[in-house]
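For practice. Any example?
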Amino acid sequence: MRLRTAGDKIKIEHSIIDGVRPFLERLTASAEIRSVIPGVIRPVRDAKGPVRVRITVPTPNGWKAIALSAGARQELFISTGLGKQELEALIGRALGDC
């Protein structure tokens, strides 16, 4: 199955929760990010306020993260060679531009 793309680095297999797309566009502007694939969306009670992102586990080609916004959580698969601390710093800068 071919994935739709937004730009060259955001692969769209599912819809994207409110507020997360601008964050992803800022994140993928970095040369260290190869691609981001947004995953499954699930409703949650604690996803109020601004977009929050936390890195959860390593994957074979990067990291899995969870984005929380608008009453939902969405998995993000981030393809990168960065370590966890460097990626957290990059995510913090991308979220700071909100």
